[in-house]
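#struct-pred

JT: dropping the chains for the assembly here, can someone run the whole complex?
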Amino acid sequence: MKRIITTTVINQSGVLNRVTGLLMKRQFNIESITVGHTEQPGMSKMTFVVHVEDPGKVEQLLKQLQKQIDVIKANDITDKSAVMRELALVKVTTPPQVRSEVQSIVQPFRASVIDMSKNVTTFQVTGDPEKIEAFIDLMRPYGIKEISRTGVTAFTRETQRTEMKPDLILQ
Amino acid sequence: MEASVKSREGTAVTEQAAGTGADLLIRSLKNEGVDIIFGYPGGAVLPIYDALYRNPIRHILARHEQGAIHAAEGYARVTGRPGVVIATSGPGATNLVTGIADAMLDSLPLVVFTGQVAQQVIGTDAFQEADVIGITQPITKHNYQVKDARDLPRIVKEAFHIASTGRPGPVVVDIPKNISVAGLEADIPHPVEVDLPGYQPTYQPNFFQIQKAAQSLAAAKRPLILAGAGVLAAKGTEELRRLIEEWRIPVTNTLLGLGTIPGEHELFLGMAGMHGTYAANHAIQECDVLLNVGARFDDRLTGKLAGFAPNAKVIHIDIDPAEIGKNVPTDIPIVGDARQALEALLRQDAGKPDTEEWIARLDDWKETRPLGYTAATADGIMPQDAVRLVHKYTEGDAIVTTDVGQHQMFAAQYYSLNNAHHWVTSGGLGTMGFGFPAAIGAQFARPDAKVVSIVGDAGFQMTLQELSLLQEFRLPVKIVIVNNASLGMVRQWQETFHGERYSSSLIPIQPDFVKLAEAYEVKGYKVETLSRAEEVFREALASDGPALIDCRVLETENVYPMVAPGKTLSEMIGVMER
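RK: done, full complex below.
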């Protein structure tokens, strides 16, 4: 099962290494990771997506992350109400005869064209990972030349849903 | 040319009023109360050794960096204070890796300073450059590379704080050479407090959890306490003894927890685990409430997890929240300092359990299934005899250090400790070559104590160069080599699990250990008969100076009882019945 973990870390050299090293040492597979500054000077936020089968291992991961001196907090926000965004650049083969067709597909995704040449268009699409997957699936028949994805960045919504999922109550 | 090389490497010493970064480092160490350093100089730490020369702190020059760090571990184990180590960059630092990993797994406080090539050349594969931060990152509690000499007081303060608080562990501070030689215009005051927002260990246990634990214990029919090294780190042995005696709860130990309760205590069942006693292991399997204080449910203790303590409600007190629920599902987790948690339990008035029936049953197991071995024929010596004789002639009061393997298990089984903080062994990492240098560190920490290093013939040969320190300081360390001319535990596993194929485990060719000892001006003895052993052990252990006993024991003896890997604690083999 996919878990989305966010951590707030002190922005020191080597902190990314510490966190990814810990994941490697404890045998977690990282699907994506994003890092960037936060509103507080000297603090960074990391968001990573990991695949974990056993819920006990998620708890262990959070505790191990929390134990790092440079980690201020670590949270599993998978079951929380959260906003999640990822950006992808998708380079699609678009010869003139399909160009307008592709444009019409792209529109509902609010993807934007950021580069164009005779036969190739590069789209930028933003959204949650499912939306990006859907976009890529629709583009695939036309011929995708290249994809680059940033990985998910996320945080919890200010107002959490009042009804909680049963498995969350158990925790 | 010379000048330009110097400035490129940043080694030109700048004269400044407040001295150099290295001077500031030494002042910081003094501010932390450091009175002994174990180390080994080299190019990248020359400025630090120069500063030490001008402003001395007692420095023990080991003969290998691994010897230095194991000595620092021995020092830390018996004092509870951080052991301090200095080594140079590159090979100096990599030689420390085993000791750092050992201290990490056994939660020993260490502050390790490594030299580093100058910042200008870091990343260029300079002479004696190694990525110490990268290498030690997974085996330290925390590590630092100093980027500015003015940060040294803060970093030293934080390093000692992190190493010695919460769950203790090793901290590495990597100091590039240009930082050590950097001139300082003004002294930097030593900080009074640390500011580490991401590091706030919980000492005070949660009151409601303590209440629940007390109620569970009071209602228990067959309660059991498992005490680990966390009790020692928290200096909570007095509180533990009170809980055991006032509530009449029997107790067992992990390997590292030995000494938390005197070995002869009536409610002590002996060590539990792979080579634990019948009474201890069966008590775990049959108890209805298991109170784990400061142990981490290591696999050598638990055996097969699926069948571990199947009837027990588990209460786990640990200062490291990540240990709770890691291996064994926990019913009542208590994050906090072991001593404070035990104190809080003692203050509860939930009543006390009625355990007399349970204790009688355990006493019966202790009586009918004790530890034991068959005496050797024809005046031969059993490895257990060697430990028994050490016990006899030190009366259980010695500080005992060991390596890893058969002799370690025999020492754990047969050296009944009278005192806490007298047991120095490599548990988690299982490091051969640990015991002897650790004894040196322990002896420096406790100059008046009797320190006995019980080692195997193979492990001893991994760090025997430290005999130089016995010669140099006339340290009265007693070395007892339980010599079976083999890698005993490897040989035992090959016999049991690998069809008696003794692949690279028999080493009949050995040095003359007596001559070796004499080469270092250490009194050497060799014994091959039990009758002579009595005499030799009595004389050697009573002597004022260093001594080495090469005790030739039965080579084919195995450690029993045993829980084979993958088996539960109930499935013991080699249990002696009486």
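JT: nice. The longest helix of chain A spans residues 55-67. Residues 166-171 of chain A have pLDDT under 50 and may be disordered.
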